[in-house]
Amino acid sequence: MIAVNLLKVKGSIPTDVTLVAVSKTKPNEAILEAYLTGQRIFGENRVQELVDKHEELPKDIEWHFIGHLQTKKVKYIAPFVSLIHGVDSFKLLLEINKRAKNEDRIIDVLIQFHIAQEESKFGFDFEEAKEMFEKKEFADLENVNVRGVMGMATFTENKEKVQDEFRTLNNYFEVFRSHFFKYNEDFSIISMGMSGDYEIAIGEGSNMVRIGSTIFGARNT
Predict the structure, then answer these.
(1) 104, 117, 128, 142: which could form a disulfide with 124 (CB 3.0–4.6 Å)?
(2) Is-contact 37 2, C-beta < 8 A?
(3) What is this structure's pTM?
(4) Letter string b/e over residues 45-76, b meaning 16 or more CB atoms within 10 A of that residue's CB
(5) Share of the chain residues as helix, strand and coil, in percent rounded to the nearest 5
(6) What is the pLDDT of residues 140-173, one digit of tens each?
(7) Rounded-to-integer distance, Cα 144 and Cα 75, Å
(8) Do the beta carbons of residue 84 and residue 110 sit within 8 Å?
(9) Mind listing the pLDDT tens digit for each residue in 9-28?
């Protein structure tokens, strides 16, 4: 069913929206089925699981780290990760830059914003991000490439609330692009929307969605 589900999801999103298949907790066989159906971008949220899957699965897979990343674990994924979605502190960004330099790489990242009401979610608020972007130390970072923004909406049945939170993130993206990234064409990603709300997110400007259960079925614990 994975192949069928994947094709259905791909058919439901515009061609200019990037699909990240969230494969966390899923076995290699499930990922390979999606891979053989043409999917190349997969998202993981546990460092050791990501490292193992990178070693065992085809090397043309683009691995995205989509969870909360501890600074002490950056070194394990720095050699190969394609995109880190959840940069939620300047300290983490500095560590990614350091580890990327050690690997002679430039690592793409997204700045995570706290747009939901749940306290359990991580991320910058508008003023914190603005303060970071204004730092000389931020301008001096040579081994990270800020590609855009990421955020998760409140887990609720209230669609208007979810819509409003996604709209807020889109507004942040536009403000920061015009003020700090005007001449950086790479700053182009708005990553928002998961299995339960990706259609709302796309309607509010998302061009990257992270979908797991709709493709792979219920999450394994």
Answers:
(1) 128
(2) yes
(3) 0.95
(4) bebeebbebbeebeeebebbbbbebeeebbee
(5) 45, 20, 40
(6) 999 999 999 999 999 889 999 999 999 999 999 9
(7) 14
(8) yes
(9) 999 999 999 999 999 999 99
